[in-house]
Design goal:
Strands 5, 6, 7, 14, 15, 16, 17, 18 and 19 form a 9-stranded mixed β-sheet that branches. A 6-stranded mixed β-sheet has the order 9-2-1-13-21-20, with helices on one face. It has 2 domains: about 150 residues, FAD/NAD(P)-binding domain (3-Layer(bba) Sandwich), CATH 3.50.50; about 180 residues, D-Amino Acid Oxidase, subunit A, domain 2 (D-Amino Acid Oxidase, Chain A, domain 2, 2-Layer Sandwich). The protein is about 30% helix and about 25% strand. By secondary structure, the protein is α+β, with helices and mostly antiparallel strands. It contains 12 helices and 21 strands. Helix 1 packs parallel to helix 5, helix 1 packs parallel to helix 10 and helix 2 packs across helix 5.
């Protein structure tokens, strides 16, 4: 019996994850990508696989599953990664209290509170002045996303026979047929993983959906001299207010109020500050969050200045020379959901809306979509799907 055919639209991390999961299950997979390579949010990020940001339960387990797949894929494809872990740093009592509560109330995570001296031993990059302690987590992984996303198509082609058609903008779908201009393909299953370009296919579905776009600004600092490394990825206290996992800490709201009083500009622009280091020693830092369907294409210098200023509160580097600045745009659900899985017509599945967690959740989500589709699929009745 011939293998079932599947088409995946989009070669960002969500599309690549879907292509892999389908190929592992024996599908004959074709991926159609509108650009000559993926250039969206999938390459414009920290490269962080970040389980600590996901709340206990299914999302944390999904993040761990993604982490495991990332390691397997990188090992087989010869891609660099580092099991760096993460270190959240506290420079006031409220930050320390939130970290202690999180460590106490969280489940069976590989966490431990560390003293100021322990934190300095874990990372030579920590600003020693005023540090009160930190939270170490072993779960976090770093990849060089801009390299990995570009190379994964070749890996999927060689290992599973996945076919890729780049510079191929899909213009219409009527299952089982997909059109790109006057070219067409047929498949038993079609997966639309279009990321922030979601208006181009099934526009009426997305127009009614609780979805918007988020613009974030990031920077890269040149490799540090002498192969100097920072150790784990580092986070300041503002990151505690960004990730849903920390909401189980009773003191979090007091910390949020403290930042509203002392750092109002950071809240206005959705800034929290983290730093990761790639294999060549360069440091990725950021980021900010602006929401809306249309964004100013130009970076705001004052946002980068705010990020750098806050980073200097908890990090000391040997070299602060900027190598690059950029922005990324990703889809974001406005109803609190962590993904949007829809069936706009038989044989077609839309997978979108992962927000800023694409690197962390995509591989695990792709597995879940194929293993338990009905549990993830949003209702097909539009009136119940998008209530007023």
């Amino acid at each position: 019996m011939p293998a079932q055919k599947a088409i995946v639209i989009g070669a960002g991390i969500v599309g690549l994850a879907m292509a892999r999961s389908l190929a592992v299950r024996g599908y004959q997979v074709t991926v159609l990508e509108r650009n000559e390579k993926a250039v969206g949010a999938s390459i414009r990020n920290f490269g962080m696989v970040w389980p600590i940001g996901q709340p206990d339960g299914p999302l944390y387990e999904r993040a761990l599953r993604s982490r495991s797949i990332w390691k397997k894929v990188c090992d087989e494809a010869g891609l660099w990664y580092e099991e760096s872990g993460s270190l959240h740093l506290a420079y006031n009592q409220l930050e320390l209290q939130v970290l202690e509560e999180f460590a106490s109330f969280s489940g069976q995570r590989p966490l431990r509170m560390v003293t100021a001296a322990d934190a300095r031993a874990l990372s030579p990059a920590i600003n020693p002045y005023g540090i009160q302690g930190g939270l170490w987590s072993a779960d976090e992984l770093i990849v060089e996303s801009r390299v990995a996303i570009e190379r994964l198509p070749a890996y999927l082609s060689e290992k599973f026979g996945v076919q890729f058609f780049f510079n191929t903008a899909v213009t219409h779908i009527a299952s089982p047929t997909v059109w790109a201009g006057n070219r067409n393909w047929f498949a038993d299953q079609i997966f639309v993983c279009s990321g922030a370009d979601f208006e181009t296919l099934y526009p009426e579905v997305f127009a009614a959906a609780p979805i918007t776009k988020c613009k974030l600004q990031l920077m890269r600092i040149k490799p540090q001299p002498g192969d100097w490394r920072i150790g784990p990825s580092l986070c300041g206290g503002l990151s505690l207010t960004h990730y849903k996992s920390f909401t189980l800490a009773p003191s979090l709201q007091a910390l949020v109020a403290h930042y509203q009083d002392t750092l109002p500009e950071y809240g206005k622009w959705g800034i929290h500050v983290m730093v990761s280091q790639n294999g060549e020693g360069a440091l990725t830092i950021g980021d900010s969050h602006e929401y809306g369907l249309v964004h100013d294409p130009f970076d705001k210098t004052f946002i980068n200045d705010l990020i750098l200023h806050y980073l200097q509160r908890f990090v000391r580097l040997k070299n602060w020379d900027l190598q690059q600045t950029w922005n990324g745009i990703y889809p974001k659900l406005t109803n609190g959901a962590t993904e949007m899985v829809l069936a706009p017509e038989p044989g077609v599945t839309i997978v979108n809306g992962l927000g800023g967690a694409g690197m962390t959740l995509s591989f695990g989500l792709a597995e879940a979509v194929l293993e338990h589709p009905q549990s993830l699929l949003w209702p097909s009745n539009e009136a119940t799907l998008f209530p007023a």
